Amino acid sequence: MIEPSDETLCAILRETRTIALVGWSPNPDRPSHEVAAFLKAKGYRVIPVNPGQAGQQALGETIAPDLAALAGEGVDMVDIFRRTDHVPAVVREALAHLPALKTIWMQLGIRHAGAADEAGAQGVAVVQDRCPAIEIPRLGL
């Protein structure tokens, strides 16, 4: 899989409106919590996904138990904060249940060639081993 150019990253981040953040943590010291808050402050709709917190409120949203619960929410990006071995299942669930999906974003340290290829074959952009909270300031967005 080819690394996305800065132009591609800019386009993804400009066009994205609703992000499902898989692996969100209620702990404010966790990176998933900090990144979600950053993205929310930048104007994105961020829907936390965490089965252990499902039904509670965070970021002005009801925490979802899984991606299937977000089928009608217009999610166009899934931001994955899960171990690499969980990525294929997350990607398959996203492809199966999110009709507006445009991007799979794997956080820092997360890469999975097979899942990336599967998403790419469905016309979904893939970003691996990057953080939007780093890329947005770096790209001046």
Automatic annotation (TrEMBL):
Matching SUPFAM superfamilies: NAD(P)-binding Rossmann-fold domains
Coiled-coil ranges from the UniProt annotation: none
Lineage: superkingdom: Bacteria
InterPro entries found in the cross-reference section: CoA-bd, NAD(P)-bd_dom_sf
Pfam families: CoA_binding_2
Domain CoA-binding per the UniProt entry, residue ranges: 12-110
Listed name of the protein: CoA-binding domain-containing protein
Native organism: Cereibacter ovatus
